[in-house]
Write a structure and sequence with these properties.
Layout lengths: L1 H23 L3 E9 L3 H9 L4 H4 L3 E8 L8 E8 L2 E13 L3 E8 L2 E12 L2 E11 L3 H6 L4 H20 L1
Antiparallel strand pairs: 1-7, 2-3, 3-4, 4-5, 5-6, 6-7
């Protein structure tokens, strides 16, 4: 009986810590960086051409233009992602667009709200892309989960940027 109380006590503490996470951590932030051996204008143009996304995001099956503005800022797209047998519709909005310097994308993927702030810089003919990502959710349960998946999110974004680098340098 004493062992059962101890086990239940441990489980209660774990559950309490899990649900407390959402109260203390409202968003998950991380940074990813990659260097590409191409000029900044070429990298930025390839990165911001919406049709190219299929080349470096393997789960992306289709892109539909919802609203495309002349200055790019405010443009909206619907992305169809298929991972194994699960399909997900993600809305993407360009929040900021400064040619050859910065592009900020906001993604709404059901319960995941993600802002990707890509900053482009050039040094000695090499282009650096720095991603500053922020994940949050309208769902309290998802807010509790995100901090525990920070490494997974970071690795996925690094994988996409690595794919983009391979696509561009081929």
């Amino acid at each position: 009986m004493k062992r059962i109380k101890i086990i239940l006590g441990i489980i209660s503490v774990i559950v309490l810590v899990f649900f407390a996470t959402g109260s203390f951590i409202k968003e998950t932030n991380y940074t990813v960086q990659i260097q590409i051996n191409k000029p900044i204008a070429q990298v930025f143009d390839a990165f911001t051409t919406i049709e190219n996304k299929k080349q470096w995001i393997p789960e992306l099956k289709s892109v539909e233009v919802v609203n495309e503005n002349i200055g790019k800022t405010g443009s909206e797209y619907q992305l169809m992602i298929q991972n194994q047998d699960q399909k997900m519709l993600i809305s993407e909005k360009i929040m900021a667009y400064v040619p050859n310097k910065k592009v900020t994308l906001f993604h709404n993927a059901e319960n995941m709200l993600k802002t990707n702030d890509y900053v482009f810089s050039e040094s000695n003919g090499l282009t650096n892309i720095t991603l500053q990502a922020t994940c949050s959710s309208d769902s309290y349960l998802m807010s509790c989960l995100f901090p525990y998946f920070k490494g997974t999110f970071k690795n996925q974004d690094l994988s996409y940027l690595t794919n983009f680098k391979a696509f561009l340098e081929q």
